[in-house]
């Protein structure tokens, strides 16, 4: 459906504050970067304040790290702020990391934007930036773009106790309620904001994530597989992206162990990085049907995805509403079948059913995961049907142009309604 015409077509000065930006290629960085560039192409004056690239490796990349630096990327002025990057990101250290970035946001010059867009994650830096906006820029309309819900994450992964989860819910609720408006990436997120965080439904807009990768360049599938050591006779099951707690990738390691024991022509490949990678590598020692690959540039990334046989989304049991895996948009663009090891009531399972591009198997069951791989591998026609449906869904529903148009309308409406911006205390 074509979004309605914006309230006004005058160019806006838009300031985007977020922890992640290109050249990071996982998480919300590709979406923040594409949105900034898309809005700039539409004539808006967009400026981004972000951190130095550090995710998912959790170390500042070579060539970056100055206290404050400035660059222009695809016509978008980008200011980078140094902040605390923990070498081993526990929950407490991640909190300190976000707070340190938030403090930098509070003391960095914002100039005079017409609209402020805050990207969450990171929630705590978002809360600090919103506090500054409410204290010093009371008429400034503030939108928050929610990619993950922290309080649901603590509850569903079991990484926080009852008190920590309750405190997180209070902080998240207060932050989102005191924004002028909130954009979420799924209808289930909107429902959670209304029913669990007491955010007014009239202030919430659903703008889905999109396929941020360009049309894949031509590549030699046989050569790519040979480069990675993949045999023609092997079924390659590839999981790409962050290796964190909520991915529950121990399930994949154990599925590979079962494939070893049964001497099956299956190889599980984990592509990327994250705070659980070292532990997973240790757990997978001597498993020949398990392979770890470092992150690769976009062109090589697409070729690697497209050279697999099955693309995998794996989630920790109990993860149902906390996030929408951004990898799905990349997966669907390949025309390959997607396998989701996830709870049947999860957002991921719903996306697979909606797209028709994949099948679901229960989370945390390595035997079931391996059985599903074997079933798909034995049915090439089914693989082709799923892959074609995912590609169709990608092209018809996950359009970057449509998403940027919706963001344009939303930000224009925030500016038009800025006289209604809340000025109450945040906490």
Describe this structure in words.
One of its GO terms (biological process) is carbohydrate derivative biosynthetic process. This is D-inositol 3-phosphate glycosyltransferase. InterPro entries: Glyco_trans_4-like_N (IPR028098), Glycosyltransferase_grp1 (IPR050194). Keywords: Glycosyltransferase, Transferase. The protein has 15 helices and 14 strands. The protein has 427 residues and is an alpha/beta fold. The chain has two domains: 13-210 and 399-420, Rossmann fold; 221-397, Glycogen Phosphorylase B (Rossmann fold, 3-Layer(aba) Sandwich), CATH 3.40.50.2000. Strands 3-4-2-1-5-6-7-8 form an eight-stranded mixed sheet, sandwiched between helices. Strand 7, helix 6 and strand 8 form a beta-alpha-beta unit. It is globular. The two termini are 38 Å apart.
SSE order, one letter for each helix or strand = EHEEEHEHEHHEHEHEHEHEHEHEHEHHH
User: What's the structural domain tally?
Assistant: 2
> Helix segment count?
15
CATH topology of the largest domain: Rossmann fold
Low-confidence stretches: 1-8, 419-427
């Amino acid at each position: 459906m074509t979004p309605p015409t914006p309230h006004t077509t005058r160019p806006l000065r838009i300031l985007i504050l977020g922890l992640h930006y290109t050249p990071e290629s996982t998480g919300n960085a590709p979406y923040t970067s594409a949105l900034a560039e898309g809005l700039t192409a539409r004539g808006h004056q967009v400026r981004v304040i972000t951190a130095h690239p550090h995710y998912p490796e959790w170390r500042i990349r070579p060539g970056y790290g100055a206290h404050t630096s400035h660059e222009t990327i695809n016509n978008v002025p980008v200011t980078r702020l140094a902040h605390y990057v923990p070498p081993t990101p526990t929950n407490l250290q991640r909190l300190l990391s976000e707070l340190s970035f938030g403090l930098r946001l509070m003391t960095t010059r914002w100039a005079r934007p017409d609209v402020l867009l805050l990207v969450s994650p990171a929630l705590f830096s978002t809360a600090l930036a919103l506090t500054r906006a409410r204290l010093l820029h009371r008429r400034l309309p503030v939108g928050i773009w929610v990619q993950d819900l922290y309080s649901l994450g603590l509850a569903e992964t079991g990484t926080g106790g009852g008190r920590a989860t309750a405190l997180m819910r209070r902080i998240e609720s207060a932050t989102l309620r005191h924004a002028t408006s909130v954009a979420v990436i799924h209808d289930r997120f909107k429902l959670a904001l209304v029913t669990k965080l007491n955010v007014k439904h009239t202030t919430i807009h659903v703008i889905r994530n999109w396929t941020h990768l360009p049309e894949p360049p031509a590549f030699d599938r046989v050569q790519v597989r040979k480069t990675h050591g993949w045999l023609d006779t092997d079924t390659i099951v590839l999981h790409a992206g962050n290796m964190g707690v909520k991915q529950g990738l121990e399930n994949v390691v154990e599925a590979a162990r079962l494939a070893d024991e049964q001497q099956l022509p299956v190889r599980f490949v984990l592509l990327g990085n994250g705070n659980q990678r070292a532990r997973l590598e240790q757990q997978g020692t001597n498993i020949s049907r398990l392979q770890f690959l470092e992150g690769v540039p976009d062109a090589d990334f697409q070729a690697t995805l497209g050279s697999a046989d099955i693309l995998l989304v794996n989630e920790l049991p109990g993860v149902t509403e906390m996030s929408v895996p951004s990898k799905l948009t990349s997966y669907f663009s390949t025309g390959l079948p997607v396998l989701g090891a996830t709870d049947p009531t999860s957002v991921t399972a719903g996306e697979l059913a909606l797209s028709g591009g994949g099948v679901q198997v229960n989370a945390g069951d390595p035997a079931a995961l391996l059985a599903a791989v074997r079933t798909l591998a034995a049915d090439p026609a089914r693989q082709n049907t799923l892959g074609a449906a995912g590609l169709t869904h990608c092209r018809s529903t996950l359009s970057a142009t449509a998403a940027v148009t919706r963001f344009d309308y939303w930000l224009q409406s925030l500016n038009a309604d800025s006289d209604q911006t809340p000025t109450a205390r945040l906490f």
